[in-house]
Amino acid sequence: MKSMTGFFSQNKKISILTAISLAVQIMGTLAVPFLIGELIDKGIASGNPSIVLRIGGQMLVVALVGGGAAILGSYLSAKLAATYGYEVRQHFYQKVQQLSLQDVESFGVATLLTRMTNDVTNVQRSLGMFLQLILPAPIICLFAVLMTYINSPKLALIPLVSIILYLMVVGFLLKKGLPLSSEIQHRLDQIMVKLREFFNGINMIRAFDNQDEEEEKTNQRFSDYAQSMITVNKIFAYLTPVAYMLMGLVFALIIWVGGLLVGQGSLQIGIVTAVVEYSMLTLAYLIMAAMVIVTLPRSLASLTRIEEVLATIPEINDEKQDFTAISTNNTSNFVSFNAVQFAYNGAEPVLEDITFNIAKGQTTAIVGGTGSGKSTIAKVLLNLTTISSGEILIDGVMLNNLSQKDLRNKVSYVPQKAFLFSGTIESNLRMGNPEASKEELERAVELAQAKPFIADQEAGYQAFVAQGGNNFSGGQKQRLSIARALVKPADLYIFDDSFSALDYQTDARLRQALRSQMEGSTFLIVAQRLSTIKDADLIIVLNEGRIVGQGSHLDLLKNNQIYQEFAVSQGISVQGGHVHENIN
Ligand SMILES: Nc1ncnc2c1ncn2[C@@H]1O[C@H](COP(=O)(O)OP(=O)(O)OP(=O)(O)O)[C@@H](O)[C@H]1O
User: Which of the listed residues 101, 340, 372 should we mutate to test ligand 1's pocket, taking the one with most ligand atoms within 8 A of CB?
Assistant: First the structure.
């Protein structure tokens, strides 16, 4: 509810205008039965045509003003609801941008997607209907009973009791339906998880001829969702018939009791007509409200799910930090890791006692087996997730004392899994530097060995890039990712196993180009292939989350057992301290 109250106070003008329009609409609706009563008792009963004309004229004005207010109210309610949808999606997007990898993982990508799309739509739709159909109902009920009471306290009991009965039924059904409605959204998440997996892995499913099993699993999720929907709909199916039943009973009772009172001469026929009108109006609003109330539990559950994300305090929060306390030591190291320890979500440590430096203007490499923690080092360096203990210094400044923006400005990163955004080759290249000149783009493309295949594209730099870069091969995507990182001016370039999809020759040409044309730049290269990192100034050998050696390629080949094993597995023979290499 917090986000909702915040939204109304931020959109005060339109909220107040909507409230005024709805109030005028309600007043118009309530005035009509009163005027009908007056028309019958004062005009028709007395046979005075001028009174009939006057009250008739008043009814016309009320109908026109009420109608106009209703149109304005509808428009404003719809606008308010659409604005809510727009703003909350914007906040949601900004919040997800701030969340660390672990924050995102603890929610799950599928649920974040459902919350941002379906949940927001649920709340938006219910908000519009709430303003138009639910909000007026209690006011209409209250005034209708009050007006009936003023004219005939005895008759007022009939709508009053019927309203109380109806509210009890609504309360009971809501209590039953609310927990089930939260379940519906959760089941929708489950469908999203399965469908994302299905679309991402569709080729694997076909390759392993696993269609039937996958279809069964997916159908199970569809069926769970449908079952929840059926159960909730069953519960609320009682609401409208109960309202119609009460409407009939109230109508019969008022005519019956009202007729008796008119017969006794204690009530005028016009008042009975007005009371019937009021009661019908009340129940008509209650029926309309009932139709919307059915959607409320689900929307409330959606609102809670949205607010859960919006209220998350990001693990890495720039607003929490005081960046004024930065000390700028002059150091020859651009990055220093000191006794860094890290574990994912409280599990076993993935990095233990990691201490090393990345010297300015040099190439540092991290090598190690699968799962040894190489990519995790890059992630903690980029502050995508926070370390458990130890410290990381960037250019002499503690990582915690750097804002995300400052850090991103200093570092350019090529992820392990190359990813392109939908658009063109040029729009992807310009991501890190929108102001880059044509020459700068061409230089980066040349360095990344992407020039030949861009030249092969009919549209060249304007060639279309599909979502995720799926219309390019793995090697092409990787070269474009590298070029994109090189377009960005940075103090440190991180390549996280970024050369693995390149053939050996391209890999060699790329390294040669970086060496000769980006001399003086600082690189961190994470790799498994020794050929990729053999020329690095410093190689860090990682094994099961620990550093087991540091040095040059030749030093490590001579002195480091794990590195030697690695070398042997890659066709480099190490015998009696002599190295026989057969790599580029
Ligand atoms: N998001 C995550 N949540 C939980 N554990 C993770 C996550 N990412 C990686 N790990 C675990 O952390 C360890 C180190 O993973 P990391 O990706 O850093 O290894 P790596 O050396 O880069 O491996 P590879 O060369 O295969 O990419 C692995 O045991 C992995 O299972």
Answer: 372
Q: Look up residue 85 and give its two tokens.
A: 């949808």
Nearest CA to ligand 1 atom 3: 344
| Domains of the chain and CATH, by start | 2-310 (1.20.1560.10), 325-580 (3.40.50.300)
C-beta of 102 in contact with ligand 1 (< 6 A): no
C-alpha closest to that of 299 among 118, 136, 131: 118
Between CA 431 and CA 409 the distance in angstroms is 12
Q: Which atom of ligand 1 has the smallest separation from the CA of 102? A: 1
Compute the distance from residue 351 Cα to the ligand 1 centre, in Å.
10
Determine the pLDDT at residue 578: 55
Give residue 345's pLDDT. 78
CA 373 to centroid of ligand 1, rounded, Å: 6
Residue 580 has pLDDT above 60, yes or no: no
pLDDT at residue 582, as a whole number: 54
Find the distance separating the first CA and the last CA of the chain, reported in whole Å: 62
CA of 370 to the centre of ligand 1 (A): 8
Q: What's the token pair of residue 379? A: 């992630």
422 lines ligand 1 (CB under 6 A): no
The tokens describing 569, both together, are 């597995």
- Assess: ipTM above 0.90: yes
CB 529 less than 6 A from any atom of ligand 1:
no
Q: Which two tokens stand for residue 141?
A: 């009920």
The DSSP line for 40-103 is IIIIITTT-HHHHHHHHHHHHHHHHHHHHHHHHHHHHHHHHHHHHHHHHHHHHHHHHHHS-HHH
Q: What was the pLDDT predicted at 281?
A: 81
Q: How far apart are CA 160 and CA 152, in angstroms?
A: 13
How many angstroms does the Cα of residue 550 sit away from the middle of ligand 1? Answer: 21
Give the per-residue pLDDT at 432. 81
CA angle (537, 541, 544) in 5-degree steps: 160
Which atom from ligand 1 is nearest to the alpha carbon of 376? 18
Task: Name the pTM for this structure.
Answer: 0.71
